[in-house]
Amino acid sequence: MISRYLSTATAFRTALPAFLLIFMPGIARADALDSGDTAWMITATALVLFMTVPGLALFYGGLVRAKNVLSVLMQCFAITALMTILWTIAGYTIAFSEGNAFFGSLEYAFLGNIGRDAVSGTIPVMLFAMFQLTFAIITPALIIGAFAERMKFSAVLWFTSIWMLLIYAPVCHWVWVGGWLGKMGALDFAGGTVVHINAGVAGLVAALVLGRRKGYPTTPMMPHSLTLSLVGASMLWVGWFGFNAGSELAADGTAGMALAVTQIAAAAATLVWMFIEWIKHGTPSVLGAITGAVAGLVAITPASGFVGPMGAIAIGAVSGAVCFFGATTLKRTLKYDDSLDAFGVHGVGGIVGALLTGVFASTALGGFEEISIAGQVWIQFVSVVATAAYSGIGSFVILKAVEKTIGLRVEDDQEVTGLDVSLHNERGYDY
What we know:
Elements: H1 2-8, H2 11-23, H3 35-63, H4 69-96, E1 119-120, E2 123-124, H5 125-147, H6 153-176, H7 180-184, H8 192-210, H9 226-245, H10 253-281, H11 286-300, H12 309-327, H13 329-334, H14 342-360, H15 373-405, H16 412-417, H17 419-424
């Protein structure tokens, strides 16, 4: 990922000092710290961390029943801590060291061989590692929406740990560090395949392996606090500017455009979902509006550094419509229990965004890439299929391994009582 950014977003800044080095040795150097870029990336890192805790935690927490709200908050909080340690030990080096076309080497294990003053491009290497840590935190956290209210806490920790190291980090390497998908020319500016398709497919597999919640779909399982969910969704929306605009790794025009198209796509998807629901059911809902916003944010993620405002409107509108049916009609037709629509929003939205990136990144449609639309869409399709297949098969194997060792699902009486009391001996509300 960092190699792609440096070769495109900061090409001028890195090329000029290199040119000067030839004629004026000692005056300039290829990698020079830029305080503005560094300040922006510190801000972006904080914004993306803010997306998981409290953003995603509150968004998911409000969508479950009151007896399970603390379990979701605890899962997001614990994953934040656990992924930090695992990323430090091995995740970063698997993802971002050179290695081969599929996996990185152990060069940066324990974040070693990275000095305090080491610079790549215009920002500190350690800052880049921390920015990418926030992605490694939120990606496995997204998956918990698919199996909310029924997986053992210990199983959540084991599954997400193994999944981040063996599924997320390698796919990250494939796309962003000169891996085989990156060399093929796959476009993924901020994580459509690496984050959202990866997590969405894993969530679908987890929902199928675990089975439905007790009483689903006959027993009503309404969100206990849409107020919390709206606050969480709003935090996600704000944090997404760090997610997408921060992925430029510089405070420049591309970052500004990425921020703009992120806002536009989210707005378009919100409105499309809201109006479809209004027409179909007679009333617009808060749940629909915030879900539509997240769908638009997901879909614009892979395209954010490559498309213009016209493409953003189209991607947002299409994702709002497709995810509406993916998160409602598809789930009801196939009768699987994706508790909080992790696949319906992140999986489906990621696929829509990845494919449409191949269309609207073209300069012919207001984008910024000189590409053949047909050729690029094919490359995007290959990246979607490869990511979905690897994540799906790998997630199934990991889930089955955890199931055979410590077990995946809570006991029936624990599920009926609620995970807050049965697993944590606490209650979210003192009624």
